[in-house]
Queue: 3 jobs
Job 1
Amino acid sequence: MKCPKCSLEIQASASRCNCGYVFAAGAMKESRSSAAAANRAPRLSVKGLNAIESRLNRSFYAAVVALIVYIVINGYFGIHAVAFRNVVLLLIIMAAALLALGGYIWYVVSLSITAKAINKRCGPYLFWAIGGPILSLIPVPIPLWGYVSMALAVAPLTIKFLLSGEIRTMIRFQTLRDMH
């Protein structure tokens, strides 16, 4: 038997299809399967989903590289800029800081676009992406706080791996849907 909604071949004894179509009611119903969740997502093509994932990857790499450049420049020139009151070195450090901030803003924007593309609420992702670095600035007098603080500061970068996994799942479901 074929589903009239998605044309998927299913068993004749089935009461509903994976896409959520209920045969007795003759209409779509809410389904709990992840395949049905992918079917309810906006019908983005595989090419569109790949473009969204590619943007997320590029923004992630830009944010990481810009942060590393800032840390290296600040570590190398920071002492000399303050000790010798060198304005040029201070401007170089400020430019690196702005570069790191710009890369991170691009990353946060890409997070929200990716979350919306896979039908996730972007609020929790944005809260953690913005709140993590801010929480890392709070001074807490406990041993090893520096390590905890550093982990809080870079933890939002791990959101990329969560969203990439979800978008790859959507690409697989879309590919299978296109094949049927």
Job 2
Amino acid sequence: MLKMRDPGRHLSENEIASFEARLGRLLPMDYRQFIATNNGGISDDYRIMYFNRFYEQMQTLIVFEWLPLLAEDSHTSERLTIEVARKNLDRLCPESMIPIALSISTEPVLIALNNDNRGFIYFLDTGVPDQRSISLVSKSFSEFINSLQPYA
């Protein structure tokens, strides 16, 4: 079970729907439920193994910060939001994906919102100069959350 420290306030259905309208895409239901109750936050360090396409080997991804949808309260006002992180990533983040978390090295974890791979979780290695910078981590947000292990 993922333990979240310092989560943001719970989000209303209207707040999430407003975000989806600005984005022009619907969030996957499992992620939508997560963000409604955990509007960002710092987690204990959790890890997951994934195949890095650029290095062509298994690597460990350590997730440590979850990006909030909204940063309106004292808990999240200093944090990077999903929309700001997406804008900061500029051309590195495909239009069909949004950043949802940061690794311990502050590189983004993305969720896909297009029909072909909707809900798939990816890791974006911002130090890699080509399309191999994005590696598949999980085929759903639920699978991703359930596969995270405490980093010891």
Job 3
Amino acid sequence: MVKRGRSATRPKPQDDDVNANGFSAGDHFETKDKSFRITAKRMVYPADAHDGATVSPLETEPSRISFARTSILGVGCFGVVFSARVRKVDGENARTRPAAGQRGDSENLALKIVLVKRRESRELSLLKRLNHPNVVRLRYFFFSSHRYEFVDDDDEEDAPRRVANELCLSLFFDRLPSTVFDEITNGRLSHEDSVAYAAQMFRALEYLHGGHSVCHLDIKPSNLLVDRDKRELRLCDFGNAIVIEDGAGGGGGGSSRKNSYSSYVCSRFYRAPELLLGAESYGFAIDIWSGGCVLAEMIAGDPVFKGEEIGMDQLVEIICVLGTITEGEMETMGAVLPSLDDRVLASRIFGTPRDRLRSKFEGGIADPLFDLICDIFEYIPQRRPSAGVAAQRLEDISLQIKD
């Protein structure tokens, strides 16, 4: 008998756990390489869209597809991502169906499955608005139910089982061969690669910030998909993304005291100092800091701020490089945690902030690129460059490298 609590494991879904398609959400996890046929919603993008198109996509339309998951690509707090083989089967019958072992016109996509509370989610709502060459493109999506039985922790051993239903959202995306994390781990990034990828990352952020007022809030190497052969990058995973209300973004990516958000966002090594200090009023500068951390990591080969814990230890790592945060800076950042004792850090800080930061790049770094990273690593959010400015500077640096 399964107890429902923190230590309980979710039981296998029941045989009658299906949606209108005859598909069980639990089938994703119980079967591999088994093919399913379902009716999904297909995203309809403009017919004249080209690589530089940034217009929003059109409406969705029903589409009959066949898919089979082949491997797990990643597991997160809110869902699982699979590699999936997908084929359109609209109008297909037994006579036209490919024989066993034949893939027909199938394509490899990424399949993300998340639990949702209703038949719409913030992530899906955002993805249906986005169409940019450096943002991952949503191809199909559908909902399915997940039914399971449980007993509460405080129930008697012979208590009757209760039944619960969860709603799952399945999202199919274009899949790229690698991620920036993979490229860093395998040591395959040159300075030219790093600059090219970073420029595309900031162009994606420029589109999100300026075109849709979207703050991603989880910029990190594993959320940056790349095609090394084409030197192409696309930003993915909008599970934490939010729409910043009017006036909250600030001219250079600052914040507004009128809007409060959770400070518990972004992965540890890429979390801006204002978040570590508990700020709940912030803007697009959060993404700019994270993007700067990714750029620096691509050049250095390792995170430049590598704290062992997500709280004060991570903040100390930043301060040991960039220097102590003044009370005025903390006030501007919207800090709610108490200030640090300077005496705790005094014995660990030597040289100037620029010298300490430059020491992170043992293989060397060009001055224009280092200057940009320094400009991004500003404590005061409003002083950080916008995504568009950062992208333009990187594109100029790319031209200098080629010359």
